[in-house]
Fold:
Amino acid sequence: PRLIPAPQIGIIRLNYEIGGFTAQEFSEQLAYARENPAIKGVVFIINSPGGSAAYSEEMYLDILHTRQTMPVVASIDLLAASGGYYAAAAADEIYAKPTSTVGSIGVIASLPGDALIEEDLLTTGPYKGFGGTRDGFTRQMEAAKQTFLEAVSNGRGERLNADLDFLSRAEVFTGLQALNLGLVDGLLATDETVQRTADLAGLRNYETVELYPLVYGEEQPVPF
Structure:
């Protein structure tokens, strides 16, 4: 007789600052989940201070794409700040611990220096070596901040109890405060979040699998 694999909830762990390598690993694990018919839902466990705005946005969009085929739930362990929370905002639901650190909704970067003209350096424009004026860079930062706030607003919807102007101050909150602000849906342990994901997927009997070793090989350790 043909053996049908038990339905599975896949676990993805985000344990580092967000950069190109982190985002690539994350996206490949989500792609594996989408392509594997046994996986019916994904829980991603967050311990991240954030990182690159561009790669955080890429992860956000990848989660939205995955949600078209299965529920994706975020479980904030110790920390989901800045880009870590940006990615979480795309999830169907977000859960935290009472003392988790949540928020820092905004962007940070260093302003470019003043444009200098060097006689022995040929460029086709005065800002080729700097990227633009300091005022222009400030406007880009403001646009990035608004994109982040819109992602949070769209992701949380009517569950959000905080004003966007208040969130734009980029404060961090405990899990309990984040619950009151509507930034998370509840305070749950990770195993309870897995069960909640199974409920969203309509599963009664299921297995839990770590996606990292399935994607990259059993000989590579799963990061904790």
